Amino acid sequence: MKIYLKDLKRQQIDRFIVESVDLSLYIAHASIGGEEHVIAEDSRGLLKRHNLLEMKRVLKAVADCEIFLRQRSAYDEMVGHTHPASANTLEISLGAAPLPEWLN
What we know:
alpha+beta; eight-stranded mixed sheet; 8 strands; 15% helix; globular
């Protein structure tokens, strides 16, 4: 389900998930009440950034919660394995601390 960035300030967000989609393309999800929502910037489309630090800046301006980076490997699909897609997913915590002043 999709949720707009401007509506996130009124929500109790458990965590943000930034998914690495391509070499340098990131899209964001918000986990609210155990349910994951893809974040849309506005009617133009999804919240996408080509820089992970810029994505963190946008998300930290909305809510102060932990951010995770998610990477899915296409290796199993490429070699023909039949494992579920979640078997090759890695999530790394990017932390919950605010960005230092010199990065803002």
